[in-house]
Amino acid sequence: MNGITHFELEGARPGREEVLSAQGLPEPSALPERLRALLDDAFEEFDTHAEPRAIAGDVSLADLEDVLDGFDGPVGETVIGQIYPRAEAFALYVATLGIPLAERIREMFATNDLGRGWMLDAVASSGADRLSYLLSTRFEDELGRNGHPLSRVLPYSPGYCGWTVRGQKNLFARLRPEAIGVTLNDSCLMTPIKSVSGVLVAGPGEIHRFRPDFDFCDECKTRACGARMASVLRR
Ligand code: SF4
Fold this sequence. Notes:
The protein has one domain (3-233): 3-Layer(aba) Sandwich (NADH Oxidase). The longest helix has 32 residues, at 114-145. It is α+β, with helices and mostly antiparallel strands and 235 residues long. It is globular. 44% of the residues lie in helices and 16% in strands. It contains nine helices and seven strands. The chain binds iron/sulfur cluster (SF4).
C-alpha cells in the first residue's frame, strides 16, 4: 500500500443510492423530477471535475503509535485506541477528489446556485468516502495475496469516534500528502475539501467489533459504526 494512486473515474464515482441514502433522500425511482435533474447534473459535474487520487504507506505498530501520540485524553477511550492493539497490519492514507471539484462546489455556492451546489457537495462527499472504501479493499486484496486471506480492513479517521481532527497533524507529518496536493490548515482542516484521511486497519473481522458506549457516542447522529461492523463481518 505504498505510493500514489490515480483512480479511474468509473471506480471512484459513487452510486446514486449511496448519495441519496447519505442525504436521507428516497431511492432514485421515488425521487421527485426536480431532484433527479439535480442529481444528473451533479454526476456530470463530478465526471468533469473530479481528479481522484490517494497516497498511502504501510506503517508498523510502533509507527502507528507515534501517529496516535498526542491525544487529548487516553487513546484507549477511543474507537481506534481499542481496535489497533488487536490488529495485524496498518497503512496510513490520504485521498482526495482534487482542487477543480472543490472549486466548482465553491463557485456554485458563491453564485447562489444553491440547489446544484448542495447536490454536487453530496455526490462529492459520497465520492470521497468511496475512496476510503477502494483503498480498504485494495489493502485487503494485497494482504490476501500475501498469505492473510482472512484479513478484513476498515478505515478509521481523525475527526470521528474520539480521534480528534488534530490527529491529522502527526498523520500528515509522516505521510506528506502534499505530494497529491492535500494540505492541512491551522484548524486541521484539509484543503481541498472532499479529501479524507486515516489509517487502514487489518485483521480478522472480529477485531473491528466494539460496544459503542463511549461518552462521545451520546451526541452521535449517524451511529455509522453498526453498519461498518456488519459490513466487515459479512465479507
Ligand atoms: S455511535 Fe457514533 S460516535 Fe459512537 S462509535 Fe458509533 S459511529 Fe462512533
